[in-house]
Amino acid sequence: MVADPPRPPPPPIDGRQALFLDVDGTLLEFAAHPDAVRVPAPLRDTLARLHRRLAGAVALVSGRPLEVLDALFEPLHLPAAGLHGLELRNGGPPRPAPEPGAELAAVLERAGAFAAQRPGTVVEDKGSSIGLHWRSAPEYADDMQRFATQALEQLPGHCLQLGKQVAELRPRGADKGDAIATLMQQPPFRGRHAVFAGDDLTDEHGFEVVNASGGTSVLVGDREPSAATHRLDNTRAVLDWLQQGANA
Which residues, other chains included, contact 143 with Cβ-Cβ below 8 Å and sequence gap of 6+? Predict the structure, then answer.
Protein backbone atom coordinates (compact mmCIF):
# COMPACT_ATOMS: atom_id res chain seq x y z
CA MET A 1 0.00 0.00 0.00
CA VAL A 2 1.29 3.44 -0.94
CA ALA A 3 1.16 5.90 1.96
CA ASP A 4 -0.74 9.13 1.53
CA PRO A 5 1.55 12.10 0.88
CA PRO A 6 2.26 14.27 3.92
CA ARG A 7 -0.39 16.89 4.54
CA PRO A 8 0.86 20.49 4.47
CA PRO A 9 0.00 23.00 7.18
CA PRO A 10 -3.06 25.14 6.46
CA PRO A 11 -2.63 28.46 4.64
CA PRO A 12 -2.56 31.63 6.73
CA ILE A 13 -5.84 33.13 7.88
CA ASP A 14 -6.20 36.22 5.71
CA GLY A 15 -9.65 37.59 6.53
CA ARG A 16 -11.65 35.78 3.84
CA GLN A 17 -12.32 32.57 5.74
CA ALA A 18 -15.21 31.18 7.71
CA LEU A 19 -13.49 29.43 10.60
CA PHE A 20 -14.98 26.33 12.24
CA LEU A 21 -13.11 24.89 15.21
CA ASP A 22 -13.49 21.68 17.17
CA VAL A 23 -12.73 22.16 20.87
CA ASP A 24 -11.36 19.12 22.74
CA GLY A 25 -8.15 17.89 21.15
CA THR A 26 -8.03 20.86 18.77
CA LEU A 27 -8.24 24.05 20.82
CA LEU A 28 -7.83 22.37 24.22
CA GLU A 29 -5.75 19.47 25.47
CA PHE A 30 -7.72 16.51 26.75
CA ALA A 31 -8.08 16.07 30.50
CA ALA A 32 -8.72 12.97 32.62
CA HIS A 33 -12.27 14.23 33.22
CA PRO A 34 -14.26 16.39 30.75
CA ASP A 35 -14.98 18.92 33.51
CA ALA A 36 -11.27 19.42 34.21
CA VAL A 37 -10.39 21.32 31.02
CA ARG A 38 -9.69 25.04 31.17
CA VAL A 39 -9.47 27.68 28.43
CA PRO A 40 -6.19 29.63 28.62
CA ALA A 41 -6.55 33.40 28.45
CA PRO A 42 -4.35 33.67 25.31
CA LEU A 43 -6.69 31.32 23.44
CA ARG A 44 -9.79 33.22 24.51
CA ASP A 45 -8.20 36.52 23.49
CA THR A 46 -7.10 35.11 20.13
CA LEU A 47 -10.59 33.82 19.32
CA ALA A 48 -12.11 37.19 20.22
CA ARG A 49 -9.71 39.00 17.89
CA LEU A 50 -10.34 36.51 15.08
CA HIS A 51 -14.08 36.95 15.57
CA ARG A 52 -13.64 40.67 14.96
CA ARG A 53 -11.23 40.23 12.06
CA LEU A 54 -13.49 37.73 10.28
CA ALA A 55 -16.62 39.85 10.82
CA GLY A 56 -18.09 37.24 13.14
CA ALA A 57 -17.37 34.18 10.98
CA VAL A 58 -15.82 32.04 13.73
CA ALA A 59 -17.75 29.10 15.19
CA LEU A 60 -17.07 26.35 17.70
CA VAL A 61 -18.15 22.88 16.52
CA SER A 62 -18.10 20.48 19.45
CA GLY A 63 -19.55 17.40 21.05
CA ARG A 64 -20.12 19.44 24.20
CA PRO A 65 -23.47 21.12 24.91
CA LEU A 66 -23.75 24.84 24.12
CA GLU A 67 -24.17 25.75 27.79
CA VAL A 68 -20.90 24.00 28.62
CA LEU A 69 -19.09 25.74 25.74
CA ASP A 70 -20.36 29.11 26.97
CA ALA A 71 -19.18 28.37 30.51
CA LEU A 72 -15.75 27.31 29.27
CA PHE A 73 -15.17 30.32 27.01
CA GLU A 74 -16.94 32.93 29.19
CA PRO A 75 -17.36 35.84 28.50
CA LEU A 76 -16.91 34.92 24.82
CA HIS A 77 -20.13 33.54 23.29
CA LEU A 78 -19.34 32.55 19.71
CA PRO A 79 -21.62 31.04 17.09
CA ALA A 80 -21.53 27.34 17.87
CA ALA A 81 -22.73 23.84 17.11
CA GLY A 82 -23.09 21.73 20.25
CA LEU A 83 -23.64 18.00 20.72
CA HIS A 84 -22.12 17.25 17.30
CA GLY A 85 -24.56 19.59 15.57
CA LEU A 86 -27.80 18.76 17.37
CA GLU A 87 -27.65 22.22 18.96
CA LEU A 88 -26.94 25.21 16.74
CA ARG A 89 -26.59 28.92 17.47
CA ASN A 90 -25.82 31.79 15.13
CA GLY A 91 -26.95 35.07 16.58
CA GLY A 92 -30.59 34.26 17.30
CA PRO A 93 -32.15 31.76 19.70
CA PRO A 94 -30.31 28.43 19.60
CA ARG A 95 -31.76 25.31 18.03
CA PRO A 96 -32.17 22.95 20.99
CA ALA A 97 -31.36 19.26 21.15
CA PRO A 98 -34.25 16.85 21.68
CA GLU A 99 -35.35 16.30 25.26
CA PRO A 100 -34.02 13.07 26.82
CA GLY A 101 -36.60 10.36 27.42
CA ALA A 102 -37.08 7.80 30.16
CA GLU A 103 -35.08 5.21 28.21
CA LEU A 104 -32.00 7.44 28.21
CA ALA A 105 -32.39 8.14 31.92
CA ALA A 106 -32.44 4.40 32.60
CA VAL A 107 -29.31 3.85 30.51
CA LEU A 108 -27.58 6.76 32.30
CA GLU A 109 -28.32 5.18 35.67
CA ARG A 110 -27.01 1.79 34.56
CA ALA A 111 -23.92 3.43 33.04
CA GLY A 112 -23.12 5.12 36.34
CA ALA A 113 -23.30 1.83 38.21
CA PHE A 114 -21.24 0.12 35.50
CA ALA A 115 -18.51 2.78 35.59
CA ALA A 116 -18.41 2.75 39.40
CA GLN A 117 -17.06 -0.79 39.18
CA ARG A 118 -14.31 0.31 36.78
CA PRO A 119 -12.09 2.94 38.45
CA GLY A 120 -10.94 5.74 36.18
CA THR A 121 -13.85 5.52 33.77
CA VAL A 122 -16.23 8.47 33.50
CA VAL A 123 -19.88 8.79 32.50
CA GLU A 124 -20.70 12.22 31.06
CA ASP A 125 -24.34 13.32 31.14
CA LYS A 126 -24.87 15.59 28.12
CA GLY A 127 -28.63 15.86 28.42
CA SER A 128 -29.79 14.11 25.28
CA SER A 129 -26.48 12.20 24.94
CA ILE A 130 -24.25 10.07 27.15
CA GLY A 131 -20.47 9.95 26.89
CA LEU A 132 -18.56 6.92 28.23
CA HIS A 133 -14.89 7.81 28.77
CA TRP A 134 -11.92 5.58 29.53
CA ARG A 135 -8.99 7.95 28.94
CA SER A 136 -7.58 7.31 32.43
CA ALA A 137 -8.43 3.59 32.38
CA PRO A 138 -7.62 2.20 28.92
CA GLU A 139 -7.83 -1.35 30.26
CA TYR A 140 -11.63 -0.90 30.32
CA ALA A 141 -11.97 0.19 26.68
CA ASP A 142 -13.59 -3.07 25.60
CA ASP A 143 -15.95 -3.08 28.58
CA MET A 144 -17.14 0.47 27.93
CA GLN A 145 -17.63 -0.08 24.21
CA ARG A 146 -19.49 -3.32 24.89
CA PHE A 147 -21.80 -1.53 27.34
CA ALA A 148 -22.47 1.22 24.80
CA THR A 149 -23.26 -1.28 22.04
CA GLN A 150 -25.67 -3.19 24.26
CA ALA A 151 -27.29 0.00 25.59
CA LEU A 152 -27.96 1.14 22.04
CA GLU A 153 -30.54 -1.65 21.73
CA GLN A 154 -32.70 0.22 24.28
CA LEU A 155 -32.29 3.56 22.44
CA PRO A 156 -33.79 3.22 18.95
CA GLY A 157 -33.51 6.94 18.27
CA HIS A 158 -29.81 7.07 19.09
CA CYS A 159 -26.58 6.09 17.36
CA LEU A 160 -23.15 5.10 18.65
CA GLN A 161 -20.37 7.61 17.99
CA LEU A 162 -16.83 6.45 18.76
CA GLY A 163 -14.02 8.92 19.44
CA LYS A 164 -10.70 9.13 21.24
CA GLN A 165 -11.14 7.01 24.39
CA VAL A 166 -14.88 7.70 24.35
CA ALA A 167 -18.07 6.06 23.15
CA GLU A 168 -21.06 8.37 22.86
CA LEU A 169 -24.73 7.50 22.63
CA ARG A 170 -26.32 10.43 20.83
CA PRO A 171 -29.57 11.14 18.99
CA ARG A 172 -29.64 10.48 15.28
CA GLY A 173 -30.31 13.31 12.87
CA ALA A 174 -27.29 15.62 12.80
CA ASP A 175 -23.51 15.65 12.71
CA LYS A 176 -20.74 18.23 12.50
CA GLY A 177 -20.89 18.25 8.71
CA ASP A 178 -24.59 19.11 8.76
CA ALA A 179 -23.93 21.92 11.23
CA ILE A 180 -21.14 23.42 9.12
CA ALA A 181 -23.25 23.17 5.95
CA THR A 182 -26.13 24.95 7.69
CA LEU A 183 -23.94 27.76 9.01
CA MET A 184 -22.30 28.22 5.61
CA GLN A 185 -25.72 29.14 4.22
CA GLN A 186 -26.12 31.96 6.75
CA PRO A 187 -24.37 35.29 7.34
CA PRO A 188 -21.66 35.99 8.37
CA PHE A 189 -20.35 32.62 7.07
CA ARG A 190 -22.04 32.63 3.66
CA GLY A 191 -19.74 33.29 0.70
CA ARG A 192 -16.53 32.74 2.64
CA HIS A 193 -13.85 30.06 2.28
CA ALA A 194 -14.72 27.35 4.81
CA VAL A 195 -11.94 26.12 7.12
CA PHE A 196 -12.55 23.38 9.67
CA ALA A 197 -9.96 22.10 12.15
CA GLY A 198 -10.56 18.93 14.17
CA ASP A 199 -8.76 15.92 15.56
CA ASP A 200 -11.22 13.07 16.04
CA LEU A 201 -13.35 10.60 14.09
CA THR A 202 -16.36 12.80 14.88
CA ASP A 203 -14.78 15.55 12.77
CA GLU A 204 -14.61 13.54 9.55
CA HIS A 205 -18.18 14.53 8.56
CA GLY A 206 -17.05 18.14 8.81
CA PHE A 207 -13.94 17.52 6.73
CA GLU A 208 -16.03 15.93 3.97
CA VAL A 209 -18.48 18.85 3.83
CA VAL A 210 -15.70 21.44 3.80
CA ASN A 211 -13.78 19.56 1.11
CA ALA A 212 -16.89 19.35 -1.07
CA SER A 213 -17.25 23.14 -0.83
CA GLY A 214 -13.65 23.69 -1.94
CA GLY A 215 -12.60 24.67 1.58
CA THR A 216 -9.70 23.70 3.81
CA SER A 217 -9.88 20.77 6.24
CA VAL A 218 -7.23 20.56 8.96
CA LEU A 219 -6.43 17.40 10.92
CA VAL A 220 -4.88 18.03 14.32
CA GLY A 221 -2.51 15.18 15.20
CA ASP A 222 -1.57 12.13 13.20
CA ARG A 223 -4.72 9.98 13.19
CA GLU A 224 -5.20 7.98 10.01
CA PRO A 225 -7.06 7.57 7.77
CA SER A 226 -8.62 11.01 7.38
CA ALA A 227 -10.28 13.05 4.67
CA ALA A 228 -8.43 16.18 5.84
CA THR A 229 -6.31 18.02 3.29
CA HIS A 230 -4.00 19.78 5.76
CA ARG A 231 -2.49 19.04 9.16
CA LEU A 232 -1.21 20.64 12.35
CA ASP A 233 0.76 18.67 14.93
CA ASN A 234 -1.11 19.53 18.13
CA THR A 235 -3.09 22.13 20.06
CA ARG A 236 0.01 24.31 20.45
CA ALA A 237 0.41 24.43 16.67
CA VAL A 238 -3.29 25.30 16.34
CA LEU A 239 -2.92 28.23 18.73
CA ASP A 240 0.17 29.47 16.88
CA TRP A 241 -1.72 29.36 13.57
CA LEU A 242 -4.72 31.17 15.05
CA GLN A 243 -2.54 33.82 16.70
CA GLN A 244 -0.76 34.51 13.42
CA GLY A 245 -4.15 35.03 11.79
CA ALA A 246 -5.38 37.26 14.58
CA ASN A 247 -2.24 39.40 14.46
CA ALA A 248 -2.03 39.77 10.68
Answer: 114, 118
Q: What does the alpha-carbon distance between residue 76 and residue 170 come to, in Å, rounded to a whole number?
A: 27
Taking only the tens place, the pLDDT of each residue in 99-144 is: 888 999 999 999 999 999 999 999 999 888 999 999 999 999 999 9
Summarised one tens digit per residue, pLDDT across range 187-232 is 999 999 999 999 999 899 999 999 999 999 999 999 999 999 999 9
Q: What pTM was computed for the model? A: 0.88
Contact 207, 227 (CB under 8 A): yes
Catalytic, out of 4, 14, 22, 125? 22
CATH code linked to domain 17-96+174-247: 3.40.50.1000
In Å, how far are 18, 108, 137 from 140, measured between CA atoms? 39, 18, 6
| CATH architecture designation of domain 102-171 | 2-Layer Sandwich (3.30)
Domain ranges (residues) in the chain: 17-96+174-247, 102-171
143 labelled catalytic: no
